[in-house]
Design a protein that fits this description.
Length: 462
Amino acid sequence: MTAIDKFKRLVNGKKIDVIGIGISNTPLIDKLLQLGALVCARDKKTKDELGEITNELISKGVHLFLGEHYLENIDGDIIFRSPGIRFDKNELLQATKKGAILTSEMEVFFELCPCKIIAVTGSDGKTTTTTIIYKFLEKQGIKCHLGGNIGKPLLPYLDEISKNDIVVLELSSFQLQTMKKSPNIAVITNITPNHLDWHSSYEEYITSKKNIFLFQKKDDRLVLNFNNEITNSFQDEAIVEVFSFSSAKKLENGVYLENDKIIAVKDGKENIIMSTKDIILVGKHNTENYLAAICATYGLVSNESIKAVAKEFGGVQHRLELVRELNSVKYYNSSIDSSPNRTIITLSTFSDKVILICGGKDKGIPYDTIGEPIAKNVKILLTIGKTADKIENSLKKALEKTNEGKDIEVIRCFSYEEVVKTAFNKAKKGDIVLLSPASTSFDMFSNFEERGDTFKRLVNSL
């Protein structure tokens, strides 16, 4: 029986509630209908907010429950929740007590996927690392499929995946929280405080991340960041081969950086993969993303394939993306930087002080660590959004302890039009203007992509 046949047997004739009408669940709804399910789609947004998609779903026979009371009267046999909906909402718990199965697109995919899965999680760097892994495999000539937080939802396309393919996934803590299966190769780039407005605690966030390896089998592989105290501690709980990566220490089993050489060592045998000079992506953090990706694919791809990708891959949108150079001023979009730690890493990429655009929605994480890097690496700070006060206060405390940054100019802005115009007026020849918000986008935008696209549009219109 094929994977798609198993999926059909699971859903055919069943009443299914799909919670969240978005990018990942719309193809899922179409597939469920195709396989003979009776579908109810539920979303907190109203019909007006969702737009034309609602009329399309109604025309296909989907029952809609929209608005504030979208979770009332759930009576389906199976409930697919989107990653952003917590599993322990009272309405969902009540439905499971009545016998409903609560699951997600990703959980069912793991149950049915016919081939090897490589999955990446972490607080920072997971999208770039996932993309690099996919490109390594693709360059090697392996048929692979990209999904999870990037690419397309893969469950509706099970019939296109064969046993000799490889699936590459980026997984968030939201997706991992209720997982009961782990990938064949699991990668954790790092763990720092994140999404504490959604998780009940930092401990819950860490526990969610651990599900990427807790259900692995003995022949699987776990890739850990040796330099991150939390991820490195997971070695004690792993029952599989741990292949570590480090930019600071020579390793006995893993991939490490020595001067400008990237070296892999396994079973006592060293293999010089390439030089860091082969990597066109800027920044130490991107070198570490390559170390992680090499760990994940070691034994699957050749050094030649790795080098070819390193020399070609210019990066993922919204991650230190060079938007344009105008009047000898470079404008960078790093809208993905939704936590202080990401902004700190991005700031360390530049040797000269930058004009930093920073701020957004507060997701309940501390900002006390960001003040000192701003004092050290920023000449003009343009703050915006709900976290502006926290960022400015962190800088103020840092300036009380150091002589660096005493002449930093801080300007509060109230729109992206204002912030881009101010940056343009303040910038001088040779300056760098950097959007690295250290905060989520949801106070002004639907997601970080919309925020980055808005910044790019405004910069390109200068």
